[in-house]
């Protein structure tokens, strides 16, 4: 039996931890995730008392062969995408930990907590500046965390 690669050992360890102790309001879709351990599907239920209360979403997390030295790709893939100043209507998320703020010491738990915090602290539902242009340009493409608001930058919306 071949030894598992370094990234797969880390991904499987994180998978077990996440399944056993997900952030509040999140759960791993084990059936979809079992198809490919490098692609996870996470169900998100918005927190009570927020403008998103009662809404549910799905995140897709894709790990590259460079994980954990490269951030995973994390996007909303459900029909309903949260209308948020840091989320484009195509599901791409503008949060520093998925771009220039990524560190190999971070994990999926910390990314998910950041996303929940981003949603919970939002006071008004609106799309980011440049949403239409970005969403059209990046339709069916992986997020480019350098390209937000119509210009290349450090990944901050």
Computed over alpha carbons, the radius of gyration is: 15 Å
Count of domains: 1
Tally of strands:
6
* CATH architecture field: Roll
The H/E string reads: HEHEEEHHEE
**Structural classification:** alpha+beta
Strands side by side in the biggest sheet: 1-2-3-4
Q: Shape from CA axes?
A: globular
- Report low-confidence residues grouped into runs of 5 or more: 149-156
Reading off the top of the CATH hierarchy, the class is best stated as Alpha Beta
Total helices: the number is 4
Q: Cα distance, first to last residue? A: 46 Å
Return the average pLDDT rounded to an integer: 87
Q: Percentage of helical residues?
A: 10-25%
CATH superfamily: Ubiquitin Conjugating Enzyme
What's the main sheet like? 4 strands, antiparallel
Structure description:
With 157 residues, this protein is of the alpha+beta class. It has a single domain, classed as Roll (Ubiquitin Conjugating Enzyme). Helix content is 25%, strand content 16%. It is built from 4 helices and 6 strands, in the order H-E-H-E-E-E-H-H-E-E. It has helices at 6-20, 30-33, 108-120, 131-137, and strands at 26-28, 39-45, 56-62, 73-76, 147-148, 151-152. The protein starts with 5 loop residues before the first helix and ends in a 5-residue tail after the last strand. Residues 6-157 form the UBC core domain.
Task: Provide the fold topology.
Blueprint: H1 6-20, E1 26-28, H2 30-33, E2 39-45, E3 56-62, E4 73-76, H3 108-120, H4 131-137, E5 147-148, E6 151-152
Antiparallel strand pairs: 1-2, 2-3, 3-4, 5-6
């Amino acid at each position: 039996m071949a030894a598992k690669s370094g990234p797969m050992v880390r991904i499987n360890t994180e998978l077990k931890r996440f399944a056993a102790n997900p952030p509040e309001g999140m759960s791993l879709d084990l059936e979809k995730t079992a198809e490919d351990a490098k692609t996870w599907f996470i169900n998100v239920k918005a927190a009570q008392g927020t403008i998103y209360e009662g809404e549910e979403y799905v995140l897709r997390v894709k790990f590259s062969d460079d994980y954990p030295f490269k951030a995973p790709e994390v996007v909303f893939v459900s029909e309903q995408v949260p209308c948020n100043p840091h989320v484009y209507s195509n599901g791409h998320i503008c949060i520093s930990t998925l771009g220039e703020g990524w560190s190999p010491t971070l994990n999926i738990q910390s990314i998910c907590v950041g996303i929940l915090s981003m949603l919970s602290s939002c006071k008004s539902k609106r799309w980011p500046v440049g949403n239409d242009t970005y969403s059209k340009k990046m339709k069916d493409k992986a997020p480019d965390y350098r390209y937000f608001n119509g210009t290349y930058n450090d990944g901050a919306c």
